[in-house]
Design brief:
single chain, 220 residues, mainly alpha, 8 helices, binds zinc ion
């Protein structure tokens, strides 16, 4: 979208944020690269620890995907959009949603990744505070191999979330939208960025499974 077409409130919010929201040394490209490099390192480490012994252990690939999808949904709906969780609410609802509304969903440069990608402490929280107990619990109940399978799937889920969410905030003309799935997910995510709808619909980003399950799937 040309800059002149941005709603004045969004333009002002973006200018204010860019002038004092982050360090002048910040690089959006490095933020994306290091986020994915970190996730890839964890996934490779997971693969070095694993040796599938039985077919049923592979069932935990889709099972962990579904658990991750529900965790994504619950965290987004009941943490990031609840004002009682001040830091998460500020970072997501007040900043991400007012920097990008449904009428102004796209970044203007890769520096705007600052308002799209998770910060390091949020990554730490999601992988180690929420994810790790789930990986350990599954490993404790079903054995070490299942624990590592869930670890690999969980961390991969986070990495794909970051990639897909970033794509949702790219301009329509970007080559990634040669993939119909990404065109669909951008449209789906754009409804969540409508300030009237954001607290009620489309909390999944990567795959709208939980939104369908819990009746919050919105599509015009
Ligand atoms: Zn978004
Ligand atoms: Zn949201």
């Amino acid at each position: 979208m040309p800059r002149s077409n941005l709603p004045p409130s969004v333009m002002k919010m973006r200018e204010d944020y860019r002038s004092k929201g982050f360090s002048p040394f910040y690089s959006g490209k490095w933020h994306l690269f290091l986020s994915l490099f970190f996730a890839l390192g964890l996934v490779i480490f997971g693969f070095t620890q694993i040796k599938i012994e039985s077919w049923w252990q592979c069932l935990f690939i889709p099972i962990t995907f579904i658990i991750a999808n529900i965790v994504e949904y619950v965290a987004h709906r009941f943490l990031l959009h609840q004002s009682k969780f001040k830091l998460a609410y500020r970072e997501h609802t007040l900043l991400h949603h007012f920097f990008f509304t449904h009428e102004a969903l796209e970044i203007e440069s890769t520096q705007d990744f600052h308002r799209v990608l998770f910060s390091p402490y949020a990554v730490f929280f999601f992988i180690f505070i929420i994810g790790l107990p789930v990986f350990l619990l599954l490993g404790f109940i079903f054995g070490q191999v299942v624990g590592w399978v869930s670890f690999i799937v969980g961390v991969s889920y986070y990495a794909f979330y970051e990639v897909v969410h970033t794509c949702c905030h790219l301009p329509d003309k970007h080559w990634v939208f040669a993939f119909p799935a990404l065109r669909f997910l951008k449209k789906f995510h754009s409804f969540h960025h409508d300030l009237e709808l954001m607290k009620s619909y489309n909390f999944n980003v990567l795959f709208p499974l939980s939104d369908v399950l819990f009746g919050t799937y919105y599509r015009k």
